Amino acid sequence: MPPRSDEPRRDATGSRRGSSRGGRGADPRSEEPGVGGISDARAYTPRGRTIREGGGGTEQRRNPRSNRAGDPFRPALQVLDGGRAGATRAGRRESAAGGRTGVVRTVSARPVREPFDDDEAPPPPRRRPGPRRPERPAARRPSRKPPRPPKLGDPRRRLRLGTLLALALFATIGIRLVFLQTVNTPAYADGGLDSRLAVVELPAPRGTIYDRTGAPLARSVEARYVFADPTRVKDRFATAKLLSPLLGVPVSELADRMRPRKLPTGVPSQFEYLARGVDIDKAKQIVALDLAGIGVHRDEKRDVPGGDLAANLIGFVSQDMTGLEGLEAKYDDVLEGRAGKKTYEVGQGDLAAPIPGGYSLTTPAQPGGSLELTTDRDLQFMTQRILSNQMVQTKGSVGAAVIMDVPTGEVLAQASYPGYNAADPEKVNSPSDREDAATSFIVDPGSIHKAITYGAALQEGVITPETAFPVANTIREGDTTFQDTHPANGRKMSIPGMLAFSSNVGTIEIGHRLGRDRLIDYQKRFGLGQATGEGMPGEAPGRLLPADQWSRSSYGSVPIGHSVDATPLQMAAAYNAIANNGTYVQPHLIKSVIGPDGKKKPSAPPVTRSVLSPQNAAALRTMLEAVTTVDGPDGRATGLAAAVPGYRVAGKTGTGLRYDNGVQQPGEVGSFIGMAPAEKPRYVVAVFVWSPGGEGGAVAAPAFREMMGFTLRHYRVPPSATNKSPKFEVFPR
Q1: Do the beta carbons of residue 220 and residue 302 sit within 8 Å?
Q2: Residues 6+ apart with CB under 8 A from 185
Q3: Which residues of 560-583 are buried (b: 16+ CB within 10 A; e: fewer)?
Q4: What is the pTM of this model?
Q5: CA atoms of 729 and 261, how far apart (whole Å)
Q6: pLDDT for 593-625, tens place per residue?
Q7: How far apart are CA 463 and CA 451, in angstroms?
Q8: 205-256: per-residue pLDDT in tens?
Q9: Rounded to an integer, what is the distance from CA 295 to the centroid of its chain?
C-alpha cells in the first residue's frame, strides 16, 4: 500500500474535500448551504478533524498551536474522564478582524495521550484510498510530551520485605530459646542456684594429746570469737568500754581495732577480730548487749588442763589452731582437723530457712588425729615439781630432767626449767624459756662421759673389773695439765675407785690405752654426735671432735668428757644402753597415733643396736655403784647424795660447761645420771643443772634421788634383794 499523505484529501476538481467557500462575513454556526456548520462537517481527515472552508475561497491552514488554545478546559475534562478524551469536541475559531474567513474545525473523538497513559500506544491514523497530493514542505507540529511524574513505591514489595524480616527475627528468637532450654540449661540452673545457696562451715576439732594413761594433756574445746564490723560500729569508744571487762582487753586496744580502715584493695574493712577463744558464757553476755557492728561466731580454743604440765614438750598453737612450738608444731599435720561444710538452698527475706527438698550437700568435717605419748602425767608432774624446788637455790639457772624406761627406751618424763603455761605462752621472760632443755641444752658433759670411756675399754679388753694401776695427781697433755680433785698421790687405784672419785688422770690413762679411733667409734655407738630422733622438733645433734682435729691436749680432754657437745637426752640414752645389758634403744616420746576413727597405730619400733656385751654392761653397772656407796677413810664418793634408800643405785656425777651458739657460758653444769635397781635396772634418770655461780653440782644429785625414789614407788618396783652394794676397795694393795 502506498504511503498515506498527511495532507487533506482533494476531490476530482482539485479542491479540498469537504471545504466550502463563502463570504468573509458568514456565520460559521449558520445552517445555510455554503456556510460552515456542524451539519456540514466533512469526513474524518488524516489528522482526525473536519475542515469547513469559508466563502472567501482562501485555504486555511491549521495553526500548530491551535490545539492548545482551542480548548482551554481540555485538561480538566481529561481528569474527569479518567485522563482520556471521552467524546468528540468541536472547535470553533472565529475569523480575525480584517475580513478573513472563519474556519470551523471539527475534531473527531480519538484517544488523547496523557501523562498517565504511558503504557497505551495511540491508535494508528486511519487511511483512505485516493490520489496523493504532491508533497510539499510543511511545518510539522513539534512533539512536546508532558513530564512524567515520579513513580510511586510498590507497597507489595515493602510488605514482602517486612514480613521476611519479621519471620527471620522470630525464627532467631525461637532458635535461641530452644538452645537455652536444651543446651545451656545446667549452666543457667547453677547460676540461679548460687543466689539461693547458704554455706555453713562445719569446724573440725584439733586432735588431743594424751599421756600414756589416756589423760589429756592438750585438747580442743568449743569457744566463740568476737568480731567487729567497723563500718557499722556507731561509737567505738563506748562499745569498747562495754566489751573490755568481758574480753579482758584494754579499752584503747579494742577501740583501735574498731577504727575504720581500708583493705589493700581499697575496700573498707568489714571484719576485725576483737578476741578469740572466748568462753561461751561470756559470749552470751556480749550477744545480750546487742551492740551495733559487734558479732559472735563459733570458734575453737586449745585447753591445757595441766597449765604448765609438760608445756615445754607439748608446745602451743596459734589462734588459728596451727601448731607453733613443741609437739603441736612437729605433728601439726596429724593433729589438724579438716573443716567440712554444708551447702543448702534457703528462701529469701522472711523465708530465709532451708527449702524442704531443695539442694543440699554436706561435706563432713574430719577431726584431727590424736597423739598418745609415752609420758606419764603423774610422773611428769612430780619431776617438774622436784626440779623447780631444787632450782630455787640457784638464780638465772637452766635445768633439765629425763626419765627413761630401760627396756623400751620410752621417755616417761621430760622436764625443763624454767617452764611456762602453755595456755598463755606469751607470759615468759624470754622465748628460750619455752624451749625443751633436754633436747636443746648443749653441754660439755664432763665426768658423766667417763662411763663411755670405761665401757669401751671393758668391751675392747683394755681393762677388767679387777684392773688397778698407779695414778698420779696430775698429767700433762700438750699444753694442758689435768689434775684430780681427789689426789691418789701415785698409789694404785682400782677402776671402781677411779669412778667413785672421778679420777681424771686414771681415765686419761685408760683413754691412751684405748686409742683415739676406738674411743670415737664407741662415742658414736652410744649415740653421741647425732640427734636421737625422739620426736621433739629442733633437737640438737651435738658434736664429736673428728680425729683429724685432735690436738695433743685432746687426748686428755676427750676421755673425761670435754671437747664433746651433747644434750641431756643423748647422755640419758647412753646410760640406758648400759642399764639395758649393753643394747642401745632409741629414746622416743610418741607411743601411738590415734586416728579420727579411734584406731591406734603404734609408732615405728625404735632403733636398737648392741654396744656392750651383757657381761661387760653388768660389770660396768657394778663399778658405777661405787659412785653412790664409797664412804670410808680413803674419802667420800662424789655421788653419795644420789643414793636412794632401799635400792641399789649405779650412776655418775659430772661437772661440765654450757655452750650457747658455740659460745661457752659462765658457770658450770652439774649433772648426775643413774639407774635403779642396779642389779636389774628398770629406770634411768638424768638431771642437768646449769648455774652461772656453779651451784649445779649441789642440786643435781639430790634432785636425782627424789625423782628416782618417786619413780620406783610410783611403779611399785620392789626394793633391791639386798640393801647393800658390793664393798669396793679404792686403793687395793
Answers
A1: yes
A2: none
A3: bbbbbbbbbbbbbbbbbbbbbbbb
A4: 0.72
A5: 81
A6: 999 888 999 999 999 999 999 999 999 999 999
A7: 13
A8: 899 999 999 999 999 999 998 999 999 999 999 999 999 999 999 999 999 9
A9: 25
